[in-house]
């Protein structure tokens, strides 16, 4: 829509009517109407369209920009009104353009230390190899030529570089990296390296109402285990007691020896003028070692050489015997491997038949984690605790403990130690003096 405004809108003149003699006749209706304002408005609108669009139709974001840096000429125009900077910044900015004098000692040319300086390779001349290469380049023979290839992408369709918002000062969120162990299979703690079942199947001896043969065999087995554990405990206690007794005995002997040493020192001090009775008569009974003669050394050397020769002959004889029965040894090795394969197949069949049954588990020596696998609870009902009625039955065991131990046994979770009290962070309580902030 064209912009309409009067001729005196921008000037300081008073408003007035158009200079038109009369509009009463038919001739003056269209022909003599003053349309200068309309034409001026249309011209201004066309100029704005040529420059990029009508200003009144544009949004505020296209017409205005937010200045976040400020004017750099304001400190020059108003130096007194600008906030004074830090003294440290002022000292740092006052740096001389002249480099500092080096503190290294420079020996004069006349005085020398007497050491002939080593010859250094000259760097102000061109080697023969570089000279030959430069001549080839001058002749047009380039070693490394760049092959011009057509572009496989449109440069103008490339995405615009992402500019970081200056107001966004928060760091980018970094996702946690997945450890390499997550891709590996869990390591079983069994000695044979096989995976234990998640929920083992109990045998008849674990029942609340078991059959007599199965219950009797399981009771005897658990009793034997308990007796062996008690025997080991008693042996450990006896060994500890013997160790303590030996330590006490050695300490008593050391005290007695120290007392004897003190008494002997006192007797030596009490001797008169260094004389002692019976000392001259006593002589050392131990035989002093004598130096070996050359004949003895030769005899020892010959004996060692004979022993080495006899050992070499015995080794060669055994080697010849093995070479003669190589076929027999190969047949024996093949027979042993066949027997071993049969044993492994039988063991695999037995494991497949009774993998899900609860039995005695042999753990590997090196377990997962710093702490050992917790011991399995004794799941055995004594003969006097067996009940004949389900009403008097007391359920035993803990499914949560069983599942947790199964996870540890299969290597799914690392064994941990229970920490009853967590270490809390140290806090310091202070009193804020709010009365100091009070100003009249």
UniProtKB/TrEMBL annotation:
GO cellular component: nucleolus; nucleoplasm
UniProt keywords, alphabetically: Nucleus, Ribosome biogenesis
MF terms in GO: 5S rRNA binding
GO terms (BP aspect): ribosomal large subunit assembly; rRNA processing
Biased composition (Basic and acidic residues): 215-243
Record keyword Protease present: no
The keyword Nucleus belongs to this UniProt entry's keyword annotation: yes
Biased composition (Basic residues): 288-302
A Pfam family the protein falls into: Nop53
Chain spans, region Disordered: 1-32, 97-121, 185-323
UniProt-annotated location(s): Nucleus, Nucleolus; Nucleus, Nucleoplasm
Regions of compositional bias (Low complexity) in chain numbering: 244-254
Similarity section: Belongs to the NOP53 family.
Role summary: May play a role in ribosome biogenesis.
Name of this protein: Ribosome biogenesis protein NOP53
Native source species: Trichoderma lentiforme
């Amino acid at each position: 829509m064209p912009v309409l405004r009067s001729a005196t809108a921008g000037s300081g003149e008073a408003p007035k009517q158009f200079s038109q003699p009369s509009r009463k006749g038919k001739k003056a209706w269209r022909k003599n109407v003053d349309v200068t304002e309309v034409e001026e408005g249309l011209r201004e609108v066309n100029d704005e369209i040529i420059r990029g669009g009508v200003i009144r139709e544009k949004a505020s974001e296209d017409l205005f920009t937010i200045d976040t840096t400020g004017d750099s000429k304001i400190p020059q125009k108003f130096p007194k009104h600008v906030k004074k900077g830090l003294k440290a910044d002022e000292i740092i900015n006052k740096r001389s353009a002249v480099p500092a004098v080096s503190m290294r000692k420079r020996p004069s040319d006349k005085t020398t230390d007497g050491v002939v300086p080593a010859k250094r390779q000259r760097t102000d001349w061109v080697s023969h190899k570089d000279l030959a290469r430069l001549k080839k380049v001058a002749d047009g023979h380039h070693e490394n030529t760049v092959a011009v290839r057509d572009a496989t992408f449109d440069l103008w369709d490339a995405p615009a570089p992402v500019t970081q918002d200056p107001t966004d000062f928060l760091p980018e969120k970094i996702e946690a990296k997945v450890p390499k162990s997550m891709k590996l299979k869990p390591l079983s703690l069994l000695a044979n390296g096989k995976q234990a079942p998640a929920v083992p199947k109990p045998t008849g001896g674990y029942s609340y109402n078991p059959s007599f043969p199965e219950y009797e065999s399981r009771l005897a087995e658990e009793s034997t285990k308990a007796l062996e554990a008690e025997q080991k405990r008693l042996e450990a206690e006896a060994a500890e007691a013997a160790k303590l007794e030996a330590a006490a005995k050695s300490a008593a002997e050391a005290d007695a020896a120290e007392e004897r040493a003190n008494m002997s020192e006192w007797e030596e001090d009490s001797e008169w003028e260094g004389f002692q009775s019976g000392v001259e008569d006593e002589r050392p009974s131990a035989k002093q070692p004598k130096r070996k003669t050359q004949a003895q050394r030769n005899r020892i050397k010959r004996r060692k050489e004979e022993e080495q020769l006899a050992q070499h002959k015995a080794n060669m004889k055994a080697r010849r015997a093995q070479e003669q029965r190589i076929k027999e040894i190969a047949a024996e090795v093949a027979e042993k491997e066949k027997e071993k394969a049969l044993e492994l197949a039988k063991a695999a069949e037995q494991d497949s038949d009774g993998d899900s049954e609860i039995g005695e588990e042999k753990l590997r020596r090196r377990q997962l984690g710093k702490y050992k696998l917790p011991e399995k609870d004794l799941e055995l009902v004594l003969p006097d605790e067996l009940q004949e009625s389900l009403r008097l039955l007391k359920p035993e065991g803990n499914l949560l403990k069983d599942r947790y131990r199964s996870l540890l046994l299969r290597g799914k979770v690392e064994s941990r130690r229970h920490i009853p009290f967590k270490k809390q962070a140290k806090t310091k309580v202070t009193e804020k003096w709010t009365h100091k902030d009070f100003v009249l």
